[in-house]
Design brief:
Oligomer: single chain
Number of helices: 25
Number of strands: 34
Helix content: 10-25%
CATH superfamily of the largest domain: Severin
Radius of gyration: 34 Å
Structural class: alpha/beta
Strand content: 15-25%
Strand order of the largest sheet: 2-1-4-5-6-17-16-15-13-14
Distance between the termini: 44 Å
CATH architecture of the largest domain: 3-Layer(aba) Sandwich
CATH topology of the largest domain: Severin
Largest sheet: 10 strands, mixed
């Protein structure tokens, strides 16, 4: 989508022209906010650029917007509002405005209008969101891979607030993208399921809870490094303390505020994770997709209901805007078609806010506007038939994935060739195969001549062992007949788990449903199978009808069906056997391989009639043929389309909430290091689901993975049915290529578990050895600078000899202590952001005064309007 799609300019400029500034000046709002809105707009527009890949962040301070330095990106004050503009290499833009939990309402309104002004100036951002502290969407937090740190208060806090804490503790949450929240240093704030960071110079302490995952511990260390580099100029040691290390925990507790707490909380009770169980797992209620069309701002009249799950992509038209609500715990999405009017685009977030309030959602819910063609993964996952539009006018060809099979369907051979590339290499070479039938809660082995023959009232377990270059790979299939009992299905699953245990958890377990056999399964049983129906199984002397279809490339499936003309379909070949006659009926849409295989099957089903049969073509049947079937009736003549299509993979981390319900957390832009040996994760390609289990899980926990897969599919907002999805159970160290191929890189040592955590700690100790914390921290520049009285430095008329960026260097030691309340030695013990905060409180802020002049001199073009607003504080 070009940037001129909505009727605006191309947006290729570095500085906004004065005409645009005059336009925003006229739109500055009420008279009470004219001055602040004008100043903030001019501060932002001065640094606005979309002609190169970059990220720019502005913070509102008083009546001015300050551009944040790159090394402070990711640090957000709880009492402020921010705007984040991310421009990518392809010149697409992602725009966000963020509200701190303690920010003021008038500042929020100002930033709301300012963000929309930027959206107009850059000719509409492809992704535009409103964010609130603690409720950020993935669209926002993905711009900060090193983590987000919340800083208490406001940048211009009073001196008393600046002096309050010398130490600061952060509670770290989040798995892929960590978020550190400020907390008062106290042992009561220690959570056994999380990690905390205590900034106590000259060391930064990272305390890890006993029940916290190793991945979250690594992320906490990552945030601590960022605090060290940005707030301590890289001169501090990072000490990691595990909760079960009593020797290090005792001195750590003494470093907390006032030393009031002397012992850890009871971690064995507080915050303990519920065990994984197949009983009582419930998905989060109310998580359903609802789609509304937007015609105006009135909820009841201008936002009509379109549909609820399952949603289909055709509901979205290019000339309209739509609201998508997935639930109160997800962003409210506004989708805008590429041919929608400019008004529809500009008012989209305001309408989303109105609609969210109407639904009773929290006012802190994220709001996200998406332009057509730039939908997020979460948005697309709400639609049951979403397909990427590579070319608008190109008719998509039919495709078939390994599990979307049916007797009454045929697959496009070209699409099947593409799907066959996904077959793991271990299935290319046949290994040893064994087949068992579930009987009386046990397994009955089948002889070689019985393999490939199934009855839809039974369950079967099939194992395959392949050896390649000394590596042994085991695959366990358990096939569930469409008319089998639930007890037999559970028995087949439990027996498959027992086999996996016997293989030392070095196997892949795949659930195979009757009529949904994947290509891997067909390869194991020599690409052919016969399925008898228990309700119509009859002696050879009775009437029988069999459907022959090519379910995969050169994979044949023979199904016994009811001997009636209603069972025929134009896409298959049929074998009709009666005591007196034998017919081969070819549907007009059946292929040559199906017709030839029907002849071959006749030799197996009824050898005595192998050379005495009649071929009947569809549309040219004799009366005798219909008489055998009991008369001609209507039958299916069209090919049923496959329900599910393969999509880009999603990785979700499974956990259990305090109430015992199943929770699935998306791991965006996943890598192998995002899974560890203590995790259970779900890999979802829409037509196929993998449940991956770490090696530390015991037998009882592994028994629950089948219920986990069922809970996940049931909670899907796209409305998929469990019987339409191929389910695989994968153990750590035995991953098939169909699983590992979705990762950028895969290695046997690439997991993010305890080994990775120990490696990070080892590297941290090496870094500490190179850092000298006893180095002189006090900036001695003040000894070579002329000294001035405090009143001179804070006056509006600044002498030429004063260095504006470092006014504190022109104070004597006595005046410095009186102004800041600390000696220079004590002052430099604070982190950088706290030092800047104290300088602002003392009116010595380097950004106050003529700092704006230095910024304007660095610009190649200065709009004339800006020259009128340059002033001293």
């Amino acid at each position: 989508m070009s940037r001129s799609s909505f009727g605006h300019s191309s947006g290729q400029y570095s500085v906004i022209p004065s005409s645009s500034i005059e336009k925003f000046r006229r739109q500055s709002g009420t008279s009470s906010r004219v001055s602040s809105a004008k100043n903030a707009r001019m501060d932002v527009l001065t640094h606005l650029s979309v002609n190169r890949a970059s990220m720019t962040i502005w913070r509102l301070q008083g009546t001015r917007c300050h551009c944040i330095e790159a090394n402070h990106h990711g640090f957000f004050h709880e009492g402020c509002c921010y705007i984040v503009l991310k421009v990518f290499k392809d010149r697409t833009a992602s725009l966000h405005y963020w509200f701190g939990s303690d920010s003021q309402e008038d500042e929020r309104e100002l930033m709301h209008g300012l963000a929309h002004d930027i959206d107009v100036a850059i000719d509409r951002a492809e992704i535009f969101t409103r964010e609130f502290q603690g409720h950020e969407s993935h669209c926002f937090i993905k711009h900060f891979p090193e983590g987000i740190v919340y800083i208490e208060g406001r940048p211009r806090a009073s001196i008393s607030v600046c002096r309050e804490y010398l130490k600061r503790m952060y509670v770290v949450s989040g798995r892929k993208y960590p978020i550190a929240s400020c907390a008062e240093p106290s042992a009561k704030a220690l959570d056994p399921t999380k990690s905390v960071i205590l900034d106590g110079f000259p060391r930064i302490y990272v305390w890890t809870g006993e029940q916290s995952s190793y991945i979250s511990r690594i992320k906490a260390i990552q945030v601590a490094k960022r605090i060290r580099n940005c707030e301590r100029n890289g001169i501090t040691h990072i000490v990691v303390i595990d909760a079960n290390d009593s020797e290090r925990c005792k001195p750590f507790l003494k470093k907390l505020q006032n030393g009031r707490d002397t012992e850890l909380p009871n971690v064995s009770i507080t915050g303990k994770m519920a065990p994984i169980s197949i009983q009582g797992t419930e998905t989060r209620e109310g998580e359903t997709a609802i789609l509304h069309r937007v015609n105006g701002d009135r909820v009841l009249y201008d936002m009509p209901f379109i549909a609820k799950k399952p949603l289909r992509q055709r509901f979205l038209t290019q000339t309209e805007s739509y609201l998508l609500g997935i639930g109160a715990h997800h962003p409210m999405y506004v989708w805008v078609g590429h041919a929608a009017s400019v008004v529809e685009v500009g008012n989209s977030l305001s309408r989303a806010k109105t609609f969210s309030e109407y639904l009773g959602n929290s006012d802190r819910q994220s709001l996200c506007r998406l332009l057509e063609g730039y939908e997020t993964m979460e948005f697309k996952s709400a639609f049951c038939d979403w397909r990427e539009k590579v070319a608008r006018n190109r008719k998509p060809s039919r495709s078939c994935s390994p599990n979307t099979l049916a007797v009454h369907s045929r697959c496009d051979l070209q699409s099947l060739d593409k799907e066959s590339q996904l077959v793991p290499p271990e299935y290319d070479k046949m290994g040893s195969t064994e087949v068992w039938k579930v009987k009386n809660c046990g397994l009955q082995p089948l002889s070689w001549d019985e393999q490939g023959i199934f009855v839809n009232s039974d369950c079967y377990v099939i194992t395959q062992t392949c050896r390649s270059s000394g590596d042994v790979r085991n695959t366990i299939f358990y096939w569930q007949g469409s008319k089998s009992e639930r007890q037999d299905q559970d028995t087949a699953y439990n027996l498959a788990l027992s086999m996996d245990y016997a293989f030392d958890y070095k196997s892949v377990i795949i659930r195979v449903l009757d009529g949904k056999e994947p290509l891997e399964f067909m390869n194991v049983i020599h690409n052919t199978m016969i399925v008898y129906d228990k309700d119509i199984m009859a002696p050879p002397s009775d009437l029988q009808l069999y459907a022959v279809t090519e379910c995969q490339t050169e994979c044949m499936r023979v199904l016994q069906v009811k001997p009636s003309s209603t069972s025929l379909t134009s896409s298959a070949a049929f074998v009709l056997l009666s005591p007196a006659d034998c017919f081969l009926w070819y549907g007009e849409k059946s292929g040559g391989i199906e017709r030839e295989y029907a002849k071959h099957m006749l030799g197996y089903l009824c050898p005595e009639k192998q050379f005495s049969y009649s071929i009947v073509m569809e549309g040219k049947e004799q009366a005798s043929f219909w008489d055998v079937l009991g008369g001609k009736q209507d039958y299916a003549t069209t090919v049923e389309k496959n329900k599910l299509k393969k999509r880009a993979p999603r990785l979700l981390h499974y956990s259990v909430s305090v109430s015992g319900s199943s929770l699935f957390e998306d791991i965006h832009e996943f890598e192998q290091e995002d899974i560890s040996d203590e995790d259970i994760v779900v890999m979802d390609t829409f037509d196929e689901v993998f449940v991956w289990c770490g090696r530390t899980k015991d037998v009882d926990q592994r028994k629950g993975v089948a219920q986990i897969a069922k809970d996940y599919i049931a909670s899907d907002v796209a409305g998929r049915d469990d019987i339409d999805v191929l389910v695989n159970f994968v153990s750590q160290g035995a991953e098939p290529r169909s699983f590992t191929m979705h990762f950028k890189a895969w290695s046997t040592e690439g997991y993010g578990g305890k080994a990775a955590y120990d490696l990070v700690r080892k590297r941290l100790r090496q870094e500490n050895a190179k850092i000298n914390v006893d180095v002189e921290l006090v900036d001695r520049t003040y000894e070579t600078k002329p000294h001035y009285p405090y009143k001179v430095l804070t006056s509006k008329l600044v002498s030429e000899g004063i260095k504006i960026d470092h006014k504190q260097h022109h104070l004597s030691n006595e005046d410095f202590e009186e102004a800041t309340g600390r000696t220079r030695e004590q002052f430099y013990l604070y982190p950088v952001w706290k030092q800047e905060q104290m300088l602002r409180s003392a009116r010595l802020d380097p950004k106050i005064g003529l700092v704006g002049m230095s910024q304007f001199h660095s610009l190649s073009v200065i709009p004339p309007l800006h020259l009128n607003v340059l002033r001293l504080s």
